[in-house]
Write a structure and sequence with these properties.
- By secondary structure, the chain is α+β, with helices and mostly antiparallel strands.
- Among the domains are: 73 residues, Ubiquitin-like (UB roll) (Roll), CATH 3.10.20.310; 78 residues, Roll (Ubiquitin-like (UB roll)), CATH 3.10.20; 86 residues, membrane protein fhac (Ubiquitin-like (UB roll)), CATH 3.10.20; 76 residues, membrane protein fhac (Ubiquitin-like (UB roll)), CATH 3.10.20; 73 residues, membrane protein fhac (Ubiquitin-like (UB roll)).
- It has 13 helices and 35 strands.
- The strands form eight sheets. Strands 18-19-20-21-22-23-24-25-26-27-28-30-31-32-33-35 form a 16-stranded antiparallel β-barrel. A three-stranded mixed beta sheet has the order 2-5-4, covered by helices on one side. Strands 6-8-7 form a three-stranded mixed beta sheet, covered by helices on one side.
- The termini are far apart.
């Protein structure tokens, strides 16, 4: 009966709307009732046209088609002298949408959200969309922890069949996590486990982090962190039984309860290898970090599988699969693992593709690659190629992918995706001291001139005491084997007469030729030859050692300079260094045949060690010594100096060490500098690699003998930012150990701009 009744209603509807008509040939079609819609739009949706035969079936189809457009809330068809008259009543258009009370989310963002559900200005108004629009606005606020937010909608009719929609929002308070409870923990205290979580109760920094606001994604991540914590400590049967999130009736307080089962702690009883062992078993076992007798650790197990996979990848097995299958003995609380190794098919590299280098030439990039086209796939060489591109300093980011070649089973492509950065640099250095006031320095350099990989630099230092002008050029691939060639021309004037120090002046100009010879993947030998001429002016009030020097060698001296050194670069990256060692050993010698015979030796080392994912330990050390030979001494203007942003921060530049009667530093022939620094990302911006903070302890001294009792020590923080305007480095330091007469400079910085 109900079905018959429904059919009868539908027949009545179409009878009332279309009215049964006798078939006729349409002479003309007219449209009435339209205000905004063009008549042509109505014609385009009608399934009939002039000359067609009109009947009940086509009339029903016409009405259905026009209703389906959504433009009209009523459609009627009439016939007059074989003219089809289409009478429509348009739905109103949305003239404007106003949002009142939105503070936490901007009105523009809310309107974008409404547009995604179909509600926007100039669109046809549909009451059915209002509920959906209100739910979308509430969803936006719930995502921000405002569970008490309410939305009231008002629709106001306007002239010309338009409406205005007003959403009045009461945002309410942000719901905060008031308590997180863990039930079922016995081996570890609840506080220790909660310290692992990102989500937390309100505290000092949660205003910025928003970690006191509930997030399903953050809770899932915290539960996985909790799982990893237990699995890395032997609790192989650990399980999260349930998670309950409840909110108070006021919708402002959230309580989270997590129920867990720890299970017993398991130890590793045995390690076996199975499958296709392409490598000697003893070599494979060295790669397995988890050992029998140890407490089970999922982290070590995963690392072991990865090391074996990477090792097979170095022999061309790019798709090797290593699975560790457990054999659990619950009675003894032990677990044995069998590493099943499936090396898969050996593959070779089909093509090496490079993208993103709009400025740098392909040849500059390809000469750094260690994986060759047509060769067997080698994961170590591919990663090493990525590191070498990284260390060029031309790119912000270097990514590598190794997709399989379609239609093959033994070929892959290697795709390097590069993001270039500004390699030109205009650097300005600003310092202040009570002796020299403001000191300005500037340098212009281009590390990758014309995309050739060549380096060009021009520098100017305009300090009152030191004025330096220099020009340098380096071709890192003077030969195809990677032998580098460089030229240097410089002029340096030193005039300390404006200071309260026994006066002297020097004016030096010189030039040189440099070569670099790579002897391994990480090591390079450097050697060079140069010429230097120095004019020295002393006064009656100058120190006796200065006067004696001029009396012995004259006011102008020449030096034939020889240099040699070795550089070991084992750093993992220059964009964001986290591990590796950088070692430099160099010598400068005044060669026989010129007036000055002396030598200077310098040793520098940097060691980066990853403490955790975000924290890196940096140890820096430097030793320097110099002297004369053939009865000469080290020229006083070649002395070592310590102090400032590049050695011991917190002290004025070059101010540490022996001083004259006026308290001004004289430098020395022995130099010691060291630093311990912990590097970490800016809080709340852990993925922003352009900005890095550090807490350091610097120490150093200089003298004419090895005298560690005069070490100065400072402690402070620094910020390094590779900003869009150029490099910026700021340090704030306080001396922990200083001596009478030392000149303190707490704040030091340099900045520049890139092009």
């Amino acid at each position: 009966m109900k079905i018959i009744y429904l059919v009868a209603l539908l027949l009545c509807f179409y009878t009332a709307t279309a009215r049964a008509i006798e078939p006729f040939v349409i002479k003309d079609i007219k449209v009435e009732g339209i205000q905004r819609t063009e008549a042509g739009t109505v014609f385009s949706y009608l399934p009939v046209k002039v000359g067609d035969i009109m009947n009940d079936e086509k009339a029903a189809a016409a009405i259905k088609s026009l209703f389906a457009t959504g433009f009209f809330k009523d459609v009627r068809l009439e016939v007059e002298n074989n003219v089809l008259i289409v009478i429509v009543e348009e739905r109103p258009a949305i003239s404007q949408i106003d949002i009142i009370g939105a503070r936490d989310i901007s009105s523009e963002d809310l309107k974008k959200a409404l547009k995604q559900v179909g509600l926007a200005e100039s669109r046809i108004f549909d009451k059915a969309l209002l509920d959906k629009a209100e739910q979308e606005l509430k969803r936006q606020y719930i995502a921000r922890g405002r569970y008490a937010a309410t939305v009231t909608t008002t629709v106001t009719p306007l002239e010309r069949n338009r409406v205005a929609i007003t959403f009045n929002i009461a945002e309410g308070e942000v719901a905060k996590i008031r308590q997180i409870n863990i039930v079922g923990n016995h081996a570890f205290k609840e506080k220790e486990l909660l310290d692992l979580f990102t989500l937390t109760t309100p505290g000092w920094f949660t205003f910025f982090t928003k970690n006191d606001q509930y997030s399903k994604q953050k809770l899932s991540a915290d539960l996985e962190t909790l799982r990893s914590f237990y699995l890395d400590r032997g609790y192989i049967e650990f399980n999260v039984d349930s998670t309950q999130v409840s909110i108070t009736p006021s919708k402002t307080d959230i309580y989270i309860t997590i129920t867990i089962t720890e299970g017993p702690k398991f130890t590793v009883s045995d390690i076996k290898l199975a499958g296709e062992l392409l490598l000697p078993e003893n070599e494979l076992r060295k790669l397995i970090k988890i050992k029998p007798g140890e407490v089970f650790s999922r982290e070590k197990l995963t690392e072991s599988s990865k090391l074996i996979t990477d090792r097979l990848g170095n022999d061309g097995y790019a798709f090797a699969n290593v699975n560790a299958i457990p054999d659990i003995n619950k009675a003894k609380r032990q677990v044995a693992f069998t590493f099943f190794i499936d090396p898969g098919r050996r593959v070779y590299v089909h093509r090496i593709n490079i993208s993103g280098n709009t400025r740098t030439r392909d040849e500059v990039i390809r000469r750094e690659l260690r994986q060759l086209e047509g060769g067997w796939y080698n994961a170590e060489q591919i990663n090493r190629s990525k590191q070498r591109l990284d260390k060029l300093g031309y790119f912000e980011d270097v990514n590598v992918e190794t997709p399989a070649v379609p239609g093959t089973t033994d070929q892959v492509d290697v795709n390097y995706s590069l993001k270039e950065k500004a390699t030109g640099n205009v650097t300005l250095g600003v310092g202040y001291s009570s002796s020299e006031s403001i000191i300005l320095s500037a340098s212009v350099s281009q590390n990758n001139i014309f995309g050739s990989g060549n380096f060009v630099s021009a520098a100017v230092n305009s300090g009152k005491v030191n004025k330096v002008y220099s020009l340098s050029f380096t071709d890192p691939y003077f030969t195809v084997d990677g032998v580098s060639l460089g030229y240097d021309i410089y002029k340096r004037n030193v005039d300390p007469t404006s200071l309260s120090v026994a006066p002297f002046r020097t004016s030096t100009w010189g030039g040189g030729l440099r070569f670099g010879l790579p002897i391994s993947e990480h090591d390079t030998i450097n050697y060079g030859l140069g010429y230097e001429s120095t004019g020295t002016e002393v006064f009656s009030t100058s120190p006796q050692q200065y006067i004696d020097f001029v009396n012995d060698f004259g006011s102008t001296t020449t030096t034939l300079l020889g240099s040699a050194g070795i550089v070991h670069d084992g750093l993992d990256s220059r964009i964001y260094t986290t591990s590796g060692t950088l070692l430099k050993l160099g010598a400068e010698i005044g060669l026989p045949g010129a007036e000055l015979n002396y030598y200077k030796l310098n040793y520098q080392q940097q060691y980066y060690y990853p403490i955790s994912k975000n924290f890196t330990l940096l140890l820096t050390g430097e030793l320097g010594m110099g002297d004369g030979y053939s009865g000469q001494s080290l020229p006083f203007y070649k002395n070592f100096f310590v102090g400032g942003s590049t050695s011991v921060r917190g002290f004025e530049t070059n101010s540490i060490g022996p001083k004259d009667s006026n308290g001004n530093a004289l430098g020395g022939t022995r130099r010691v500098v060291g630093s311990v620094e912990v590097l970490f990302p800016m809080p709340f911006f852990t993925d922003f690699k352009a900005l890095r903070l550090g807490h350091f302890v610097d120490m150093g001294t200089v003298a004419d003998t090895w005298n560690f009792s005069t070490l100065r020590v400072s402690d402070g923080f620094d910020v390094a930012w590779s900003s869009p305007f150029g490099p910026l480095k700021v340090s704030i330091a306080k001396p922990l150990r200083d001596f009478s007469g030392d000149k303190i400079q707490h704040f030091q910085f340099t900045f520049g701009t890139s092009f």
